[in-house]
Specification:
The strands form 3 sheets. Strands 3-6-8-7-12-13-11-10-9 form a 9-stranded antiparallel sheet, with helices on both faces. It has a 3-stranded mixed sheet with strand order 1-2-14, with no helix packed on it. It contains 7 helices and 14 strands. The chain is an alpha+beta fold. A hairpin with a 4-residue loop joins strand 4 (about 100) and strand 5. The longest helix is centred in the last third of the chain and has 22 residues, at about 255-280. The relative contact order is 0.17. The chain is about 25% helix and about 20% strand. The structure holds zinc ion. The site of zinc ion has 6 residues, from loops. Zinc ion binds near residues 52, 55, 57 and 58.
Length: about 350
């Protein structure tokens, strides 16, 4: 194994870090941390009610399509198909084969299924604050939905993600599942790099990274025998975290019951660490990366989760990816090592 010590200059001087999953760089600028901060620092610590009569996901309330949400909390978690999803199933073969090839432009029809999973009857709970058995039920519903959607011949990839207090129209605990007839270009790149690593070294890159990070400890936020949370060396968002399984898994289908409990512990810890650091409910977007359902990418160890909270100094002030970050490459001032230390509650 290579030297695990980071050179001191990485914490002091501006530099570029490489992400072996995407092949892209992130500009890390710790020298900028000395500049005067002129941003607002107002905290937004909203207290949500246990029941909101205007919330379509609270028990007994009506959803946009006029369906009623179950009155009995025992029917949670439940899922429903998003009627106005970004992709919908193909209505016939002609529609499913539509393609356009122009002089410079090309396009083809996109279809799939978008579902919503509502986690718990309590409006104010999160996956971190609801009873652990309820959170495990949510993961079991993700597994059930993944299995059923993967069985549809026209589905090639399934993305399970959660937007909390950020990019979500409802504050009630829920997440989305988008299953589509294509694999996104960014996930294809990651799969290609994982496959290349497997071919060259007969090992899975993410599991090698997980073992390395557990040994080094510097970027580890939490770990147990099955999963580790790290702030990746190449993290783009200031408090970005990855949950990586210690053994190679393709999707949620591969988890044992013990691993499911461990995964939800990790997921909860990631949320708690953010809330604890920021002193309130921290917004985040989190997603599960899983092998395509067409069989490509199996065996690469693609399954992992990423948390991307859009904050830096306060949960009341969002971090935006703008300017140079949109034009050239992501940039951050706080080093990932320092972010991990803060999320562990140190200092
Ligand atoms: Zn609600």
């Amino acid at each position: 194994m290579k030297d695990t010590r980071l050179p001191d200059w990485l914490q002091k001087y501006n530099h570029v870090r490489f992400n072996p999953l995407t092949g892209q760089n992130v500009l890390v600028s710790p020298a900028r941390l000395n500049r005067k901060w002129a941003g607002a620092s107002t905290e937004q610590c909203e207290r949500l009610p246990a029941f909101d009569p205007t919330c379509p996901f609270c028990p007994g309330n009506q959803r946009a399509n006029n369906d009623m949400t179950p009155k009995d909390g025992r029917f949670y978690p439940f899922y429903f198909i998003n009627d106005t999803g970004a992709v919908v199933p193909p209505s016939d073969e002609v529609l499913a084969s539509l393609q356009y090839e122009g002089a410079f432009h090309s396009a083809k029809i996109a279809f799939g299924i978008c579902e919503v999973v509502v986690h718990h009857h309590r409006h104010d709970f999160t996956l971190a604050t609801m009873p652990q058995e309820s959170a495990v039920s949510v993961v079991n519903m993700w597994i059930q939905r993944y299995r059923e959607l993967a069985d549809r011949a026209f589905i090639r990839s399934i993305n399970i993600f959660e937007n909390y207090l950020f990019g979500a129209s409802q504050k009630h605990p829920h997440n989305q599942i988008w299953a589509a007839n294509y694999i996104s270009p960014s996930q294809k790149v990651v799969l290609g790099n994982l496959q290349g690593y497997l071919d060259n070294r007969s090992a899975c890159m993410l599991q090698d990274i997980a073992a390395f990070e557990v040994e080094v400890k510097e970027r580890v936020v939490w770990s147990d025998d099955h999963f580790v949370i790290v702030v990746p060396f190449w993290a783009e968002w200031p408090f970005e975290m990855m949950i990586i399984p210690m053994r190679a898994l393709d999707s949620v289908l591969d988890m044992t019951e013990e691993e499911i409990v461990s995964f939800i512990k990790a997921y909860s810890f990631a949320i708690h660490s953010l809330n604890s650091h920021f002193g309130g409910n921290c917004p985040y977007t989190a997603g599960l990366y899983q092998a395509p359902t067409d069989g490509s990418g199996n065996g690469c160890g693609f399954f992992h989760a990423i948390f991307r909270p859009p904050v830096l100094r306060s949960i009341g002030v969002y971090k935006w990816m703008v300017g140079y970050e949109l034009m050239a490459s992501p940039q951050r001032d706080l080093t990932p090592e320092r972010a991990a230390s803060l999320l562990r509650g140190e200092d």
